[in-house]
Amino acid sequence: MPQSHSPFDPVEEDLYRRWRERKLAAQPVGLEETLVEIADPRRPTAAEQSRLLDLCRRCNFALYATPCGADADPKIPLGVGQALGLQRLDHNWLGDADTGLTSITVRREEPRTRYIPYTDKPIKWHTDGYYNTPQRWIHGLLLHCVTPAAEGGVNGLMDHEMAYLLLRDADPAFIPALMQPDVMTIPAREKGGVVERAEETGPVFSITAEGELHMRFTERKRSIRWKDDPTAQAAVEKLGEILNHDAPYRHHARLESGMGLVGNNILHDRSAFQDGADSQRLLYRGRYYDRVRDTGFRSLVADL
Q1: Dist CA 125 CA 217 (whole Å)
Q2: Domain 13-288 CATH superfamily
Q3: pTM for the structure as a whole
Q4: Which terminus of the chain has a smaller tally of CB atoms within 10 A, N or C?
Q5: Based on the number of CB atoms within 10 Å of its own CB, is 113 exposed (0-12), middle (13-18) or buried (19 or more)?
């Protein structure tokens, strides 16, 4: 439920206007402005951490580049995450048991063949863990590339706060409609009559106790039910237009070896890709219950 004194609360119009002005002024001019060079990702320097944190304050994500190339040491992405306060990994059932990360690569064996991330197919716009229970909502996200695809595998990126801003500007009624606690339902996952994951219903937008914005969303058309509410359905349609047309504040990035993305749980997609004859695309994915923060970090919300 919305908390008081947050610009994301639909009733806080003055606070929203002040936050909106600062948010727009802080936006990176281009994707290259979001890239931070990290000499040793296992132990980022104070200056490197400061640049990453500043970008997450402004646009909720940062890209990073390291000299590590195709080094598959999981301590590389884990070090970057820990430097930004990302500690509590979501140990999902298909993750790597020893690290809590998930190896995203084409797999030919069950059960991974049933899930699009482990194929070379495109993935529609989403935030990670949109089907999780509230106790396991994903607030932080890290993607680290060990080996890129031979072709394709480009990620679309959009700050979820900017999606909120564009939706609220288009029609303020869209926001409370998407904050309804029963607006989006992910049906149960079953196999052979056994429920592997229970049905999960919740909002698209919600506000944390600290007044920050959380978003859970998927653009998939199957295995999802939207509330029979004209305003909510119009809001979902508008969000689709924002994400799939040449809207501002939308970026596209292809991660190369040693590169990564770290930040809060922003909207992202993935284009189809093709592996090489002698190499296979491999990314590490970390999903965190934490938001990016450290003792010196202040978001644009906290600055109001």
Answers
A1: 8
A2: Clavaminate synthase-like (3.60.130.10)
A3: 0.94
A4: N
A5: exposed
